């Protein structure tokens, strides 16, 4: 899958030989050291055999050419790896879609490394309640069940999102828009098939399997019509997810 417009291509070797060492030297090493504190080493290998190993060290993480010494070796294609760096892809999604292969070790280690990869690739600090108290801008405890509207104070919303990792915004969609989305969801559920690699499946108390989510929804006409609505009503800096009550949920 080609990268979307606006996301620059990344050279695998240049990124590991120049970009990451510079980012680590610039202060990112402390974030990575915390996130990878108890992780074994992992290597990313492309289909052509090019590979680099990430090994936790006191000063962050070592970037080692090759994969001979890695506990776990994950093989993927170049575009999927670039999507992972740009945060267009997540380890769980790549594993589910079988776009990565575990050549050695345990494939779940890729998911265990997600927080460390976000710190390494994107500079995102790992969540740590000791170093990040859940307080509002005035030092009072945040209400985990708080919700907002499009007219709410933007600074308060940004602070809540940055601190809690999610944001619930009510009354983003009209009732008729919600009804359209629900009807489309029911249609997608009827079309989903186990093993189609586009849907997630669960099991209820009666042991009946059912589809709980479908990636095909992002290509549906109803969803595409809602995208400009979402863009107009919500800040462009907040990626949103819609709920069945007309609310928009943003998550980082």
What does this entry look like structurally?
By secondary structure, this protein is of the alpha+beta class. It contains eight helices and eleven strands. The strands form three sheets. The protein has a five-stranded mixed sheet with strand order 3-2-1-4-5. Helix 1 packs across helix 5.
Can you give me a brief rundown of this structure?
This protein is of the alpha+beta class and 252 residues long. It has 8 helices and 11 strands.
- Give the name of the CATH architecture of one domain: 2-Layer Sandwich
Rg value: 21 Å
- According to CATH, the homologous superfamily of one domain is SCP2 sterol-binding domain
Shape: globular
- Chain-averaged pLDDT: 83
